[in-house]
Amino acid sequence: MSIIEAVKRDVSLLNDEGAFAAMAERHRNELHVHCYRMLGSFHDAQDLVQETFLKAWRKRDTFQGRSAFRAWLYRIATNACLDFLARHPRRVLVPDGESPPPIAPAGHPQDLPWLQPFPDRLLEAAGPSQSEPDAVVVTKETIELAFLVAIQFLSPKQRAALILCDVMEWSAREAAELLGLTVPSVNGALRRARATIRARGAAVEARDEGLREPTPEERHLLDRYVEAGERGDARAIAALLRDDVRFSMPPEPGTYVGRDVVVQGWVDGGFGTERFGVFRSILTRANRLPAVACYLRRPGQAVFLPLAVDVLRIEQGAIAEITAFPLAAMLDAFGLPDRL
Questions:
Q1: Tens of pLDDT, residues 67-93
Q2: Which residue from 268, 265, 280, 273 is spatially nearest to 299, judged by alpha carbons?
Q3: In terms of CATH architecture, what is 216-334?
Q4: End-to-end CA separation in angstroms for the chain
Q5: What is the DSSP letter of 165?
Q6: Percent with pLDDT over 90 in the chain
Q7: pTM value > 0.90
Q8: Average pLDDT, stretch 144-165?
Q9: CATH 1.10.1740.10 domain locations along the chain
Q10: How far is the CA of 284 from the CAs of 83, 190, 340, in angstroms?
Q11: In the chain, where does the domain assigned CATH 3.10.450.50 lie?
Q12: pLDDT for residue 3
């Protein structure tokens, strides 16, 4: 079907509530990813998608067929995110003077208390069908935590311009029309945004054509990580970490840097002792990275209850970064049980 034929079909179906809902629903997952990139929060993005559908239904008479229905939904979703950010200004946290010494510079996950992971199982359904003329691949670089963290340091309109032009591949003119800016203003915002992203070690240029499974070597490392955690063996986990490993636990402030510092922090917290409890874990994936869902059975408990999901970045055969998010609020998103 040509773009013109698709647009005519979309216009003809807009006033049929059932057809409208079905058309919108096809784009739910990819809009969720779009809003997640804008906001960094899985649940806030979920709410914004629902708000987008409600606004689209109320404003359906404004759809003139000058663009595809999907592009129209993206316009509404982007404006909904900008309105949300205007109503809920978010301050990046900088550790205070009482923080322990092994703190990383501002710009890491601990600075963003609203940051949440995005399960890979939902990414698999996020990209539009390749039969659609405006299909866009969900690239690894634009959903990894490094990008999500870096983009939160942009102003809302810089953020939107970068996502629309560099991720969605819209033209500067299209982005300017949506954002209420001039084309030179959008180009200027893009230059500043790209510089900020590069300065924080993230990227949007590279393309990744699919959800990659761990290599056999990575899978072996993950199995060893799980086994050592379930044994409460801090030394065995330490052997899997890079010397300069980073560990953070949003929304808790502080990033611990260095193998000895990270492991000692766990030991000081009781890891490996009878009073702390026993772990059981499930391998999963989030933000195109391997992850481990950790359940803990405290002394006196009969079951293992959700504790955290550790998102792991592996480099050169060792774990370079661990970002641990609260698991209980994310169980449904990951399709995980509420106890083991």
A1: 688 889 999 999 999 999 999 876 554
A2: 273
A3: Roll (3.10)
A4: 48
A5: I
A6: 59
A7: no
A8: 90
A9: 3-89+125-199
A10: 33, 34, 15
A11: 216-334
A12: 46
